Amino acid sequence: MRDLSHDRALLSINSITVKAWSLQQLVEGCARAGIAAISPWRDIVQDCGVERAAKLIRGHGMTVTGLCRGGMFPAADAASRRAALDDNRRAIDEAAAIGAQCLVLVAGGLPKGSRDIAGARTQVREALHALLPDARAARVPLAIEPLHPMFAADRACVNTLAQANELCEELGEGAGVAVDTYHVWWDPNVEKEIARAGKNILAYHVNDWLVPTSDLLLDRGMMGDGAIDLRAIRAMVERAGYRGHCEVEILSAKNWWTRDPDEVLRVCIERHQTVV
Amino acid sequence: MRDLSHDRALLSINSITVKAWSLQQLVEGCARAGIAAISPWRDIVQDCGVERAAKLIRGHGMTVTGLCRGGMFPAADAASRRAALDDNRRAIDEAAAIGAQCLVLVAGGLPKGSRDIAGARTQVREALHALLPDARAARVPLAIEPLHPMFAADRACVNTLAQANELCEELGEGAGVAVDTYHVWWDPNVEKEIARAGKNILAYHVNDWLVPTSDLLLDRGMMGDGAIDLRAIRAMVERAGYRGHCEVEILSAKNWWTRDPDEVLRVCIERHQTVV
User: Fold this and answer.
1) Which pLDDT does position B134 carry in this prediction?
2) CB of A209 within 8 Å of any CB in chain B?
3) ipTM, interface predicted TM-score of the complex
4) pTM of the model
5) N or C terminus of chain A with fewer C-beta within 10 Å?
6) CATH H superfamily, domain A8-274
7) A219-A220-A221-A222 Cα dihedral, nearest 10 degrees
């Protein structure tokens, strides 16, 4: 069995980790570093042009562990909800075009002015049902990523693996979860819910929780610099049967985004081997 | 049945909401505003002197809805864990002296350098068992307050009402929970777990979740200024049988702490009536 933490062939770089780079720079930079997998955000794919992006990625033999991100479903009116679904269908097409293994979905938070989180959760569930046939037709599985509860209001009302697993079990084929250490490490049920997710784990993201954390969104840590027992979570993911990539996703405005991206990749490689 | 949101006799002010005030100023300020209940933090009780504090509080006929706070149990070595227990025993004595209805407990996070959150949770459980006989003897119930998961590393590894309820059910008489809207509002199981807590609800804290939130600890909102459906949570707490006070606890370095505390109390009274 391949060891997720020591096989560089299973390391993937999420584009937000090296935010300054275009898709071409990401592909070429990863190739230089001996990294064979990426997970781009939609903006850099669109900036590149989807066809050209697909060609670039194929040309370098890169695996695409996911496209980040669809979702953001809840909205205050029906027209906005339809617009969100349409945008997600475009995201599915983009994911298919670049051969992404999944489309990562961030549910979305409360519609502007709303305090009805149960209602937002219902909207997410309905949107997933509406989107699933398109995802199946395009053979792009939807990876529901629960976000940390501190994002419940403004980014994602799916905040636990239990919620994501429940949605997956209801949706069936074509739906899975993205397990991100930053979002799930604190959960007393993390071990049980990772086991429950089992073959539905479509993506596995690593990073760290810094103490102190100076910004809710943009102060994630490099693996090894924070409080998360990454080895323990990797063991859970492996026990659940996951054999895919380990994707580094770090949003870090004041530290990693200010550094030379080539250096960031070197640190990712080293930490992937030593602490993940 | 008294309506928790409209009866000023059931409004309590947590001292951190008006951080600039000493205990004497808090007691006198609340009396001026027609507020008959407070929940002081230990520092201002100690600054006042416990006996003098008790006399002041009695003299104004104030109800003490809780003493904030004990807990902070996990530590890297046995001596530090014993020191934490000793400090909690002093907190129980202080709570008894001022006639507090409960001692609010914040569990504590990871010991310095540790990434073992399961281990920290075991330490909390063991500390609670060790402390319970003292709490029972002093007739000061322990109110376990789950903190928002964003505090799991540095403040509290008890992060859901489910965890707190489980601890209470194991501990039995003398242990209960503090339900704070800021910490529980995002939880998909909040309704179920508030119902489960039932008569174990020893304290009910209100405030709001701001969008955006600029600081993890010190940017809580005044009721009505954020994303929490406070009425819905009050209804849950009432359905669970709670008939106690509604305690305003707001940590707000850049807004409410910079204002005249008398003005803050006026806003608390108004929002308690209109949005809680």
Assistant:
1) 98
2) yes
3) 0.96
4) 0.97
5) N
6) Divalent-metal-dependent TIM barrel enzymes (3.20.20.150)
7) -130
